[in-house]
From TrEMBL:
It comes from Candidatus Erwinia haradaeae. Its EC number is 3.1.1.29. Its main location: cytoplasm. Hydrolyzes ribosome-free peptidyl-tRNAs (with 1 or more amino acids incorporated), which drop off the ribosome during protein synthesis, or as a result of ribosome stalling. Catalyzes the release of premature peptidyl moieties from peptidyl-tRNA molecules trapped in stalled 50S ribosomal subunits, and thus maintains levels of free tRNAs and 50S ribosomes. This is Peptidyl-tRNA hydrolase. GO terms for biological process: protein quality control for misfolded or incompletely synthesized proteins; rescue of stalled ribosome. The keyword Cytoplasm applies. GO terms for cellular component: cytoplasm. The active site is at 22 (proton acceptor). It is found in: Cytoplasm. PANTHER family: PEPTIDYL-TRNA HYDROLASE (PTHR17224:SF1). The keyword tRNA-binding applies. The record marks 95 as: Stabilizes the basic form of H active site to accept a proton. It is an enzyme of class 3 (hydrolase).
């Protein structure tokens, strides 16, 4: 059985991006660290903030890259190489334009789907796409010319609350994955849609 050894939340660094839709992956990692009473600390050799979850005999590392989104692969690759983590034991959490807000889904394999963070990770993992993804729906502005402004803006309070509730559900499902099984976690996540 595959065990998650690295969970990554994609983000852009800096205070001005903290509350943006594009940083939904880092919101998830912060909530996950809080759930397990862990503190994220900056580790320059991994170009990110990290924490360690110890669950029985398993160690799962958390990572929020401090690189910009389109350079996330450098951070993910440095940690996976250092700890010899197979690509299929990595989960990448990211914002997803193609899912409505309020929906989050686990997925394994696939293309980057136009997400620059995923594209860079795939490039840095020797084009291996066997990692898992947590796709956090942020919705779409309805016009592709508005996408950049949309993802780099802070959602209104009502939308932010929906996003936070969705991420909280994802954290609960991740805990099921870590303590029980991936299949149970995926089924639980899909049942909550």
């Amino acid at each position: 059985m595959s065990h998650l050894k690295l969970i990554v939340g994609l983000a852009n660094p800096g205070e001005k991006y903290t509350t943006t839709r594009h940083n939904a992956g880092s919101w998830y990692i912060h909530m996950l660290a809080k759930r397990f009473n862990q503190t994220l600390r900056e580790e320059k050799k991994f170009f990110g903030y990290t924490a360690l979850l110890k669950l029985g005999t398993h160690n799962t590392r958390l990572l929020i890259p401090t690189t910009f989104m389109n350079n996330s692969g450098k951070s993910v690759a440095s940690m996976s190489i250092f700890y010899n983590i197979p690509t299929e034991d990595i989960l990448i959490a990211h914002d997803e334009l193609n899912l409505q807000i309020g929906i989050a889904k686990f997925k394994q394999h696939g293309s980057h789907g136009g997400h620059n963070g995923l594209k860079d990770i795939i490039d840095n993992l020797s084009h291996d796409t066997s990692f898992h993804r947590l796709r956090i729906g942020i919705g779409h502005p309805g016009n592709r010319n508005k996408v950049v402004t949309f993802v780099l803006s802070t959602p209104p309070e009502k939308e932010k609350k929906i996003l936070e509730d969705t991420i909280d559900r994802a954290v609960s499902c991740t805990e099921i994955w870590l303590k029980e099984s991936r299949l149970k976690a995926v089924n639980q996540m899909n049942a909550s849609i």
